[in-house]
């Protein structure tokens, strides 16, 4: 199961960015409806990447896709699941191949649908909440060598709460329409970082000194007192959150099979991708 822990290595900047050239289908907004799912932004974020890997691996173990893949083992299925998640997050075609039986799969995004669902955003009182986010809920890291400011609003005019150094990890709760990442600490919005300067983690998130959820100390000469908040100061706001469904085409080639299978994958309330 070692491949399971490599999933974050394939996550990269993200979901909708790579889908710009694909067919987009928007469902009716459900943010004010009582019928749709309601969830708290940031809940269960630490389980999302592993849950997605498990769901994708299972997807390649049963049904017509499994039949077309033929005699591949669990390690092959996990590797294919990792490649699939890369396509989901990047929106770009990726190829995978196993040498054992010379099976190859080209995974290509076909279409994407966005669904607006109601959610509760938890945030610090000093931070300006937004009205909507594209759901991410995965670990990100600072890739800018000069560090990146966490601002109290998604604007370069907003005040700076702290500056995270190169390599610092944090929870990306979501992405704004103006290309800012909503930064979470323990599932609570603590500010925003400019999207081009950060990216999904290239390594598994762990409880370390660079993880904002566990960090206690100084960040680029800014004291983290701002982030050491108590539960009684956290505020809540109802917002609309865009979750995704993507249809992928799997072009499968082996000695005995040449076929293309379709797979429709959707995010659930916490960001996990699964077959729908």
What this model shows, in words?
- Keywords: Signal.
- Residues 1-17 form the signal peptide.
- It comes from Pokkaliibacter plantistimulans.
- Residues 146-196 form the SH3b domain.
- This protein has 276 residues and is mainly beta.
- The protein has helices at residues 7-10, 48-59, 63-69, 74-90; strands at residues 23-26, 39-40, 94-98, 103-123, 132-142, 148-151, 160-164, 169-175, 180-185, 188-194, 198-200, 218-219, 222-223, 235-253, 258-267, 273-275.
- Strands 1, 2, 3, 4, 5, 8, 9, 10, 11, 14, 15 and 16 form a twelve-stranded mixed beta sheet that branches.
- Helix 2 packs across helix 4 (74-90).
- The longest helix is centred in the N-terminal third of the chain and has 17 residues, at 74-90.
């Amino acid at each position: 199961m070692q491949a399971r822990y490599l999933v974050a290595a394939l996550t990269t900047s993200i979901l909708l960015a790579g889908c710009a050239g694909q067919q987009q289908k928007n469902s009716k907004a459900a943010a004010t409806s009582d019928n749709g799912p309601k969830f708290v932004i940031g809940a269960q974020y630490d389980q999302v990447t592993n849950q997605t890997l498990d769901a994708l691996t299972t997807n390649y173990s049963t049904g017509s896709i499994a039949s077309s893949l033929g005699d591949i083992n669990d390690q092959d299925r996990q590797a294919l699941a990792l490649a699939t998640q890369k396509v989901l997050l990047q929106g770009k075609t990726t190829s995978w191949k196993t040498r054992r039986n010379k099976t190859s799969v080209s995974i290509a995004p076909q279409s994407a649908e966005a669904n607006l669902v109601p959610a509760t955003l938890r945030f610090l009182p000093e931070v300006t909440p937004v009205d909507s986010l594209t759901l991410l809920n995965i670990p990100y890291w600072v890739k800018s060598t000069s560090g990146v400011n966490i601002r109290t609003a998604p604007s370069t005019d907003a005040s700076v709460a702290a500056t995270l150094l190169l390599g610092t990890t944090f929870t990306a709760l979501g992405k704004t329409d103006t290309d800012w990442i909503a930064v979470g600490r323990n599932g609570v919005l603590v500010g925003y970082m400019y999207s081009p300067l950060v990216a999904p983690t290239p390594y598994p998130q762990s409880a370390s000194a660079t993880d904002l959820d566990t960090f206690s100390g100084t960040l680029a000469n800014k004291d983290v007192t701002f982030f050491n908040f108590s539960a009684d100061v956290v505020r809540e706001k109802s917002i609309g959150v865009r979750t995704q469904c993507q249809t992928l085409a799997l072009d499968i080639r082996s000695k005995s099979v040449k076929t293309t299978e379709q797979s429709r994958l959707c995010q659930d309330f916490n960001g996990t991708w699964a077959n729908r």
